């Protein structure tokens, strides 16, 4: 099963390589990893998506917690969360199909951020499902380039 | 104003460092320049950096203090790696200081540059590259704290030359704030209650002492608890000495080369209480067949070890000295008489039954050592058959007196570890048990022993071969031997002489008593070579995929 871990770490150089190295040498599979500063500049938050059964995830959490630079590990898989990924996609857009693409962009509420003579760059944010749906809808027009971030997530309400 | 190097030395003094094992080089010139001026710290010049790391590790294990070693950048640092990994696997507290090229040249593949923090990341508890000399006091303080607290381990501090050479005001650091590092030392009350209940209810309880008992300084607490409950105690190799080896409750070492009664006790117990151990594959054999009828309680300072290799019924995180006291206060004495009757019916230790062998066997020598060793003996071993025989047969009576590379299995550990142990414990008899293979890996450090006037006793069990690999080839390669026989060995007698040691040799059984005795009593450095049979293997042995109860013996 896929798990989402929110890991608070010291905002030091070298921390990311320590965490990534840990996954590599213990044989855990990272599906995505996003890291960035938090509201506290001395703390970074790593959002990890990891594939594994309960036993693997327990080990992953324990090994992460054991790292001196790791402040807190939260498994937010079963929490109510808001999740977002960012997608930038360059799609072939000759005049005859441009209108159709723009309609798709409208439906998915994404944005056109660059217009070339024969292509468009589309920016989209959303959860995994939405991002997949956008990619699928634009595939027939010819995707020339695609780049996306991993997932970031935040637990809703309460705190 | 002080140099960064002088601040480093000041900080080391503040941590109570008395000895540093090291080897100089270009990137640590300033550090050495500052070190020779120190009145508190003695520097011991080694012969190879690997020796420095092993010596710091032997020192740490014998004394319970943090071992410190020092080497230059590049090859100096990489030569430490095996020693760091050895210490990491056995949870030994080290602070390892390496020189580095100046910060402006880091990343340029400069002369003798190596990314030692990158290299040692998987084999250290933590490591630092010091980029700002003002951080030195904090980093040194943190490094010692991390190395010795919680589950101990090695910490590397990599210091670029310009950091050592820069001038600045010294500002002491007296406070540590590590929000991501706060080991739990007190056992959870609810879990303690459950463990007490299990111990009281069990019909066939068994305690297993790991190295954690020794590093927590909880040997006496363990023995007391075992005595209250009259529970048998088995030990991992790292846990030998936690309970005295000649104690009536001690069953000896378990594992794939464990003694028969320890393994049988594991296989038949209904409660297995693991103290400060990590269920290494050499301890468990096939985990699916490990302690099949038992509930497993695992008490350890490191939560990540619990449930890593075997299923655990009751996990309990804490410092063993505290937790064992918490437990002992709640227990009522028991007999476990039926269980002891069953244990008494187990067959004797396989290894002791040598049958008739025209040549000298290692167990005979171990027996002689048990009879002749003084009370203050500290054993170190190398790695191979001799190590297993030593672990199975020697009576290790106190904690911190059996020093061996358990987790990594590092050949060449015995002599340098003994140097460190002897430096830590000058009045003790330190005996290195080694083979002709391992001896040749650790031999250079005899030079350090000679220079420091350390009266080590080095016992070379010479079978002209790499016995453990040969034994594995017997079992896994149909007896086809590859690269395990030394066709030519140096004359160890002359080597010993070259190092100024008393050189003794035993070739006939009749000489054993007298020569072992002379060897152990010699006031200075002594080397005793015993020509032993090359045909013997260590038993019992558990083959790959088998459970501990399926051990095989001598045919």
Would you kindly provide a written description of the structure presented here, covering whatever features stand out?
The complex is a heterodimer of chains A (159) and B (555). Chain A is built from four helices and nine strands. Chain A has 159 residues and is an alpha+beta fold. In chain A, the strands form two sheets. In chain A, strands 5, 6, 7, 8 and 9 form a five-stranded antiparallel sheet that branches. Chain A has a four-stranded antiparallel sheet with strand order 2-3-1-4, with helices on one face. In chain A, a hairpin with a 3-residue loop joins strand 6 and strand 7. In chain A, helix 3 runs antiparallel to helix 4 (128-138). The radius of gyration of chain A is 19 Å and the shape is elongated. Chain B has 555 residues and is of the alpha/beta class. Chain B is built from 22 helices and 20 strands. The longest helix of chain B is centred in the N-terminal third of the chain and has 15 residues, at 49-63. Chain B is globular, with a radius of gyration of 24 Å. At the A-B interface, helix 1, helix 2 and strand 4 of A face loops of B.
């Amino acid at each position: 099963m896929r798990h989402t871990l929110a890991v608070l770490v010291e905002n030091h150089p070298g921390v990311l390589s320590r965490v990534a190295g840990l996954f590599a040498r213990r044989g855990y599979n990272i599906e995505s990893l996003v890291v960035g500063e938090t509201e506290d500049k001395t703390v970074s938050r790593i959002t990890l998506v990891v594939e594994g059964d309960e036993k693997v995830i327990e080990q992953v959490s324990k090994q992460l917690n054991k790292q001196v630079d790791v402040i807190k590990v939260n498994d937010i898989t079963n929490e109510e969360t808001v999740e977002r990924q960012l997608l930038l996609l360059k799609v072939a857009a000759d005049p005859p199909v441009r209108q159709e693409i723009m309609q798709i962009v409208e439906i998915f509420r994404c944005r056109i951020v660059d217009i070339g003579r024969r292509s468009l760059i589309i920016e989209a944010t959303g959860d995994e499902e939405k991002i997949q749906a956008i990619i699928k809808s634009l595939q027939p027009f010819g995707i020339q380039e695609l780049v996306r971030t991993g997932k970031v997530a935040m637990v809703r309400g309460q705190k | 104003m002080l140099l960064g190097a002088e601040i480093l030395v000041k900080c080391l003094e503040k941590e109570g460092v008395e000895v540093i094992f090291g080897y100089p080089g270009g990137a640590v010139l300033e550090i050495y320049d500052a070190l020779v001026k120190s009145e508190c710290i003695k520097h011991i010049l080694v012969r190879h950096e690997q020796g420095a790391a092993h010596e710091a590790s032997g020192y740490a294990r014998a004394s319970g203090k943090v071992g410190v070693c020092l080497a230059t950048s590049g090859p100096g640092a990489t030569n430490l790696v095996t020693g760091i990994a050895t210490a990491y696997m056995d949870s030994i507290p080290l602070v390892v200081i390496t020189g580095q090229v100046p910060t402006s040249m880091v990343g340029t593949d400069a002369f003798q540059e190596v990314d030692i923090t990158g290299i040692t990341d998987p084999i250290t508890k933590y490591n630092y590259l010091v980029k700002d000399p003002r951080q030195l006091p904090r980093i040194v303080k943190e490094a010692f704290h991390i190395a010795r607290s919680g589950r101990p381990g090695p910490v590397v501090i990599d210091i670029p030359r310009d950091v050592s050479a820069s001038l600045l005001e010294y500002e002491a650091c007296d406070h540590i704030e590590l929000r991501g590092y706060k080991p739990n030392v007190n056992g959870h009350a609810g879990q303690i209650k459950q463990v007490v209940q299990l111990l009281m209810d069990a019909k066939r309880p068994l305690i297993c002492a790991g190295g954690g008992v020794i590093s927590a300084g909880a040997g006496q607490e363990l023995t007391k608890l075992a005595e209250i409950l009259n529970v048998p105690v088995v030990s991992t190799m790292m846990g030998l000495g936690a309970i005295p080896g000649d104690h009536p409750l001690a069953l000896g070492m378990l594992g794939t080369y464990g003694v028969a009664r320890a393994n049988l006790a594991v296989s038949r117990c209904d409660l297995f209480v693991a103290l400060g151990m990590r269920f290494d594959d050499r301890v468990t054999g096939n985990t699916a067949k490990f302690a099949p009828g038992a509930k497993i309680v695992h008490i350890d300072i490191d939560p990540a070890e619990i449930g890593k290799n075997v299923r655990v019924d009751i996990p309990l995180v804490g410092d063993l000295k505290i937790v064992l006291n918490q437990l002992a206060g709640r227990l009522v004495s028991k007999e476990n008489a039926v269980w002891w009757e069953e244990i008494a019916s187990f067959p004797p230790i396989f290894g002791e039954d040598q049958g008739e062998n025209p040549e000298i066997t290692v167990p005979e020598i171990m027996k002689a050592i048990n009879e002749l060793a003084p009370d203050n003996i500290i054993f170190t071993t190398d790695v191979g058959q001799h190590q297993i025989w030593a672990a199975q047969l020697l009576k290790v009576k106190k904690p911190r007196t059996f020093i061996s590379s358990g987790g990594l299995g590092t050949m060449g550990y015995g002599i340098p570890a003994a140097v460190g142990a002897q430096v830590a414990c000058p009045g003790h008899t330190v005996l290195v048990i080694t083979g002709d293979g391992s001896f040749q890996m650790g031999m250079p450090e005899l030079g350090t022993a000679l220079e420091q006037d350390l009266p080590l006793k080095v016992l070379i069990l010479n079978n002209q071969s790499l016995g453990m690999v040969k034994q594995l080839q017997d079992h896994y390669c149909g007896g086809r031997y590859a690269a395990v026989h030394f066709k030519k060995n140096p004359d160890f007698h002359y080597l010993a002489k070259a190092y100024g040691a008393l050189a003794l040799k035993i070739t006939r059984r009749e000489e054993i008593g007298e020569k072992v005795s002379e060897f152990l009593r010699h006031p200075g450095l002594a080397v005793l070579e015993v020509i032993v049979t090359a045909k013997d293997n260590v038993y019992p042995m558990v083959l790959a995929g088998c459970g501990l109860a399926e051990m095989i013996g001598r045919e």
